[in-house]
Amino acid sequence: MKLQIAIDRVPLDQAESFARKLAPYSDILEAGTSLIKDYGVQALAALKKAAPDTALLGDMKTIDEGDYEFRQGYRSGADILTVMGASSVATIEKCYRVAEQTGREMMIDLLECAPETIGRISDFSNAIYCLHTSVDKGATADPNGDILAFKKRFPSVRRIAIAGGINLGSIEKLKESSPEIVIVGSGITKAGDPALAAQNFRKAMA
Amino acid sequence: MKLQIAIDRVPLDQAESFARKLAPYSDILEAGTSLIKDYGVQALAALKKAAPDTALLGDMKTIDEGDYEFRQGYRSGADILTVMGASSVATIEKCYRVAEQTGREMMIDLLECAPETIGRISDFSNAIYCLHTSVDKGATADPNGDILAFKKRFPSVRRIAIAGGINLGSIEKLKESSPEIVIVGSGITKAGDPALAAQNFRKAMA
């Protein structure tokens, strides 16, 4: 399991500081959607500069204009970009094409996607599928159970990430379903000592 | 019918220049999603400064973090902000609360929303519901017919906007269904003479 740490809803200089401090404990650093909407894709360039040796995910949450947004995001330094599963299939196809052409990666955010929707978009073989519970709805109650159910229903999906209220207590259980990527945000960045919190997550994942 | 002109996928100085040139012919100027992702919410402040007397819509396409994103968008100068119909109901409720509290407006973008989804979110009485065909999928074939069918299915929805490949030829027919807002983007901004194109749309709408 890889640890992706999401940085969001802070001023850009604080986001850069988080990136520098948390890079040693992150497999992937994430520039959150609101950070991108606050500062634009320059937020991606800033985080990449702050932590050049760590993979950077830009949580673009693209839902239309797939070609344009993905080109802008990769050009700005992102290694992975997100597209909404709720987009039209045409949009996801455009994003995927740009990702494949540029040798980067695409994550499909399954926020609010019904199983029928997921069924229509489950064949992007290199994509990472992110099971995601809305911050506005509250945390996932059983992330491990969610992944096990997803794997059973969509056995062809190879790469899985999980996001939404993941805490230290979730990690031990997640070892059963073993997603490729575990995404943690405020559980680390809002801790009293974020670097220590990140280390604790890493230890729990080991 | 009001004319909303969308400005998108151009450098910020060109967007400001469009805002100044097109404000006289616009009821609403729109800062497009990609413009916001390129430059952040400062793009809203810049367009508001360029055309202070024209209503400004920020096409935030919020799909999570409703409270945070809407507060940021209104604070930056937007009079209207968009939330995705594909969001969780909790997200739309949060956006609506911020809109009502701050005396601003909310538009719900119905991109890729099934009728069952729309049924669940059709009771935000002051919201504008935007029928929207994805740029990536191609233009709406029959915008007038789409609105008539929508009105029949959701008679309680009072305020309707239409977006996606609207051209001069669509306008005459739209008089039948008479949406509150007609959204035009590249049909104006990519014309040889955008100000003239905007005037032609206004004439057609009269």
TrEMBL record, chains A, B:
SUPFAM superfamilies: Ribulose-phoshate binding barrel. Residues 2-201 form the Orotidine 5'-phosphate decarboxylase domain. The keyword Lyase applies. It comes from the Bacteria. One of its GO terms (biological process) is 'de novo' pyrimidine nucleobase biosynthetic process. Transmembrane segments: none annotated. SMART domains: OMPdecase. Keywords: Carbohydrate metabolism, Lyase. GO terms for molecular function: 3-dehydro-L-gulonate-6-phosphate decarboxylase activity; orotidine-5'-phosphate decarboxylase activity. This is 3-hexulose-6-phosphate synthase. The lineage of its organism: Bacteria, Bacillati, Bacillota, Bacilli, Bacillales.
